[in-house]
Amino acid sequence: MATVWLGFFNPSGKFAAAVANAALSASLLLSIRAFSMTWGPEASALTANFTWIQVAGVNLEFGVVLNPLTGAMLAMVTFVGLLIFLYSTSYMSRDPGMTRFFCYLSLFMVGMLGLVMSNSLLLLFMFWEIVGLASYLLIGFWFQKPSAAAAAKKAFITTRIGDLGFLLGLLWAFKATSTFLLFDGGQGLLESDRITALIASKDVLFGLNGAGVIALFLFIGAVGKSGQLPLHVWLPDAMEGPTPVSALIHAATMVAAGVFLVARAFPLFLADATALAIVSWVGALTALFAALVAVGQYDIKRILAYSTVSQLGLMMVGLGAGGLALSEGGVSIGIFHLLTHAFFKALLFLGAGAIIHGCRHEQDIRLMGGVFNRMKLASICYLAGALALCAFPFTSGYYSKDQILISAWTAHGAVFWISAAASLLTAFYMTRQCCYVFLGDYRGRGSIRQCPALMTAPLVILALFSLAMGIVSEEFFHILAYLSGFAVDQHALIVVVVSWVIALGGIALGLLVYGGSKLGLDTTDPVKDSLPTPYSWMENRFFVDELYAATVTRLWKGSAFLIVFLESGFHFLVETVRSFVTITGGFFSKTVDCKLIDRISFDGVCDRIYKSSQLNAIIQNGFLQGYLRIVALGAVILGVLFLVFAR
Amino acid sequence: MQYAQLFFATWPDLIVVLGMFAALGVDYTKYKHSPVEVRSDKVAMITSLSLLLALAGVVWQWSSGVGSPLVPADTWEGQIVLNPLTLGFKAFVFALALFVLQFARFQVPNQHVSEYFGLFLLSALGMGFLITAQNLLMLFISIELISLSLYGLTAFQNSQRYSVEAGIKYFAIGGVSSAFLLFGISYLYGATNALAFDAIVAALDNGAVPTGYLWIGSTFLLVGLGFKIAAVPFHLWAPDVYQCAPVPVAAWIATGSKIASFFVLVQLFGPVLQFSAQRDTLIIGIVLISLLSMVLGNIGALRQTCVKRLLAYSSIAHAGYILIGLIAANREGNVSVLFYSVVYAAATLGAFAIIGILSHRLGREALIKDFNGCWKKNPGLSFLFMIFILSLAGIPPLSGFFGKLYLFMAAIGSRPEIAGWSDGFYWLVAVALLMSAVSLYYYIIVLKAFLVSNESPGPSPIKLSKLEGAGLVILALLVLGLGLVPMVLVDFISYGFSYP
Question: Is B415:B280 a contact under the CB 8 Å cutoff?
């Protein structure tokens, strides 16, 4: 399963695209093979480990693992990835940087596949960083746009905070267990022996046990990568990148890496109930927060971005609450939503890309409208994705979100209601967006143009998956049971009722508010009319960016100022000492002084080393007699040394 | 004496000898009146083919399992010892020789083509025997075979005064060193009544060895081998010889000859250093040699303007680093010495080869500034050169870094009972690290000329032959690959040491 990816040495854009597509298709086939290998009622894991380096008793081991979780992720990543590669072949065809684009995309796929497969926390971290780098490069792909460059930097720096947490967790884990391997025939980090040992070390930090601390540090990494509260700020800005990138990286795959990390390290989380509770609370609050913000946005991609943040929050709820309710079954709940979400969110982004393409690169939904009549196929696909996102009954989103709500219901009432509210809002803002985009008359410049078939085909495929995947995977393949190894409780009447009410109610509410009213740049949003103050908060994303600007950035500036101040103080001190030395030195002689200063400075030492090579020239004078004398001298010295020191 | 056994042990070497005679014969009969290019082409083909066959033979011996009747393990008191380790290194040296021949082929200094290649083969033969030798007599004879061929090669540009001068210097110092070596061997024989390495070790184990003879013998052996590895103060020939010899010859002296010498050094002194009495005394001398080599080698290189001379000093410094592994006096130390010698040989050969290719058309010795702006005309060569030089400097993803890491870790971890900074080898490793920092200066200067400098147009684009290109790429992959998966080689060497 080790697919080797080649960088491309400057071919034309088309050729690069073709190579990338071919390579990814091959990798898709291999992934499906891997997926089917791991398919079965009993989850059998396949691992291959090797020692990378071995220094002074420390082994750094790498390895790959193939278990059901890996298999499912591999199949999803390569499949969605291939569709998006195909789509971008058309979408980016006019761009002069197409080769660079496909290089970056391929780099990203390398990182993502490696991340999914690696069986060593260290290796996982390396691929995690590769993925982060690829994300940075792709967000800033149009680096001539200042906003894109700024967004890339923001994404990189914000996720770095999370990465630091990951790194700390990784080092902590290594210190506690002296292995990086996740599965190693009973000796791995995630296997029962180590976990038991970690649990045994109680009260390591804030009342958490050893496993819980590591889990929480890893969770910080996941928070950064998956855009959870409070590190979510980078994700909406990341939409500055090309739309396929938003679809692939910032909706379907990379942001899910955080969720995947939690799922991968799930035994660690299971070991401490507090850790699970924190995960579910962070997830629920993120879900609600992002859903609220999404209601107040006008940029079509930004709405989807906040929706992604919100859905990632729900996945975290699925993992956290699922872990509390079902222990090991929790993995399947979070990951099931991750898989379905990957399909419909990729569909939504690609659809949004098609709409933006059609509307002459306009992203403001107030300047759209009437798109349905002009781009029927793309619009139907988009609506299918929207329905799945709203968890409309019997779409894929319904099945996966239902599971999350059930587990939240079992685990914790408050979390359940928050998640339910977030889901209701999801249905509401998606309806709002669709009303803006599809109904009424076209309000933008020029006329809507059709998009090429290569762009529509992936949409259709993804739409079919979005609608049917839930039924197929749940009813026929029992994917939940497959992922976690046992069946999950299906029916809690109240939850079913609530989820139906949420989905239908949200859509109905949206239609009620936005369906009939006249929308556009010149009219205010209907919600704003009735609730002006909360809406303005939503519009401004609850001022989180501003809050960070006011606190973190100011703190940064303050500390910079402080450092400058300290430095000037220090400089003053140094200056005093220096002038003292200068004066006393000058008292004796100017030349001695210069030598003194020079001698203690770096330059002086370097110069001395450099000059000392003259010494060498004296020996190496080219005369054979001298050479032989020195050989003899060396022999005599050695002999005397040995005889003197001999015992 | 069983001649059949001898034949089975040495038939790859016989192929090399036959190849040499075939080359000489063909050159002086069929192609006697052909132009030099044709002759060098034919001769290089014959010699390369024989080396390739010999290499395949050694690999076959290695893979078919030592100890079977077709591959006798040990013959005649350690004169030819075949085991996975010796066969592996013999194969590596033959492979290096094969690479060198590919570069030498286009840089034949005069019309004596077949002698030139024949001497290469003879020295490679000597190195192969030196690696399989675990007997002082065989050691001496192989060293003489290597040295005599290399003296001839050094002086091969007999139309140039400086080449002959370098050859004579090399010969004079080499002769003196051989005298020391032989004298040391006789003293050691007198002290232990044994010539085979294991018999010497057994004698030391028994005690009752007159220590005075032992120390004098060890001193002289160290002098003789110190000359071969160009360690200070027995290094003085190296800068002159590297500078004045034809480039392929300099590359060959700096790699093949060194790797074989380090191998035999580890084989001889590794077991001896296991005895604490011998260790405590011998180490003082080796530490001194290592320290002087690192300091003088690196500092000497700082001011050089001639690239070959610079590499000569750098190789002296590397000999100093490698001795640190010997000082560790344990399994890890010995493994790290051999690991580093392989890594060093690959990077040095690559660097020399590129220098040779680029400076061949210059018609004089190449200065650093001759390579200014090389990346514009020869981007591929410059990139490969960067890999080799960075590995020599010990920059992390490359194998040079891991080589140094293993050496230093072995030295630090060698005697856990010594914890203080003043004891142990902390200070020696600290000096080594400091000197590595110094070495960065001159490596970067060379790289700057290659990659950054914009001043002059530099050498015009050069078209490599396929074999040259393949050789360089293989060497670069080796340097890079051993950095990514160093454990492959480390495991191989450790396995070899634990082989009965």
Answer: no
Residue A516's pLDDT is 64
Q: Are A317 and A287 in contact (CB under 8 A)?
A: yes
CB atoms within 10 A of CB B467: 17
Per-residue model confidence as pLDDT tens digits over B454-499: 766 555 677 778 888 888 999 999 999 998 888 888 888 888 887 7
Structure tokens at A613: 């090579």
User: What's the gap in Å between the CA of B216 and the closest CA on chain A?
Assistant: 6
The CA radius of gyration of chain B, in Å to the nearest whole number, is: 22
A399: its two tokens:
């099945």
The span from the CA of B383 to the CA of B376, in Å, is 11
| B219: Cα separation from own chain's centroid | 22
**A492, exposed or middle or buried, with CB in 10 Å at 0-12, 13-18, 19+?**
middle
Q: How far apart are CA A404 and CA A419, in angstroms?
A: 9
CB A329 within 8 A of CB A484: yes
d(Cα A215, Cα A278) in Å, to the nearest integer?
Answer: 11
> Are B236 and A620 in contact (CB < 8 Å)?
yes
Distance CA A634, CA A134 (A): 58
Chain segment B44-90, per-residue pLDDT in tens: 999 999 999 999 999 988 888 776 767 777 667 778 888 889 999 99
- Report yes or no: B58 and B12 within 8 Å, Cβ to Cβ: yes
As given in the structure block, the two tokens for residue B284 are 């003082």
What is the C-alpha separation between A260 and A272, in angstroms, rounded? Answer: 18
**A203 — alpha (psi -120 to 50), left (phi > 0) or beta?**
left
How big is the A-B interface in CB pairs under 8 Å? 106
Cβ–Cβ < 8 Å for A265, A190: yes
Question: Are A519 and A436 within 8 A, CB to CB?
Answer: yes
Cα–Cα distance for residue pair A161/B133, rounded to 1 Å: 59
Q: Choosing among A627, A633, A637, A644, which should be mutated to test the B contact, i.e. which has the most B CBs within 10 A?
A: A627
**Residue with tokens 């050694």, as numbered in its chain:** B58
H or E element, residue B75: strand B74-75
The single-letter code of the amino acid at A54 is Q
Torsional class of B193: left (φ above 0), alpha (ψ -120 to 50), beta (otherwise): left
Q: Give the separation between CA A42 and CA A60, rounded to whole angstroms.
A: 31
Which residues from chain B sit within 8 angstroms of residue A647, using beta carbons?
A: 277, 280-281
Model confidence at A4, pLDDT cuts 50, 70, 90, reads very low
CA A360 to chain CA centroid, Å, is: 30
Cα-Cα-Cα-Cα dihedral sign, residues A274, A279, A280, A284: positive
State the Cα–Cα distance between residues A62 and A121, nearest whole angstrom: 9
Q: Is the dihedral of CA B370, B374, B377, B380 positive or negative?
A: positive
Tokens standing for B323? 């001795």
pLDDT for res B51: 93
Report chain B residues whose CB lies below 8 A from the CB of A624.
Answer: 168-169, 172-173
Q: Is A13 within 8 Å of A91 (Cβ atoms)?
A: no
Query: In angstroms, rounded to a whole number, what is the distance separating the alpha carbons of residues B221 and B244?
Result: 28
Chain A residues lying within 8 Å of B281, measured CB to CB: 642, 645-647
- Cα distances from A219 to residues A123, A214, A252, A358, A617, in angstroms, run 17, 8, 19, 40, 61
Closest by CA to B138, choosing from B81, B88, B95, is B81
φ, ψ of residue B167 in degrees (nearest 5): -60, -40
What are the helix (H) ranges across B84-210?
A: 84-104, 113-132, 136-154, 161-192, 197-206
Whether ipTM exceeds 0.90: no
Three-state secondary structure along A333-391? HHHHHHHHHHHHHHHHHHHHHHHHHHCCCCCEHHHCCCHHHHCHHHHHHHHHHHHHHCC
- Note whether A52 and A61 are within 8 A (CB): yes
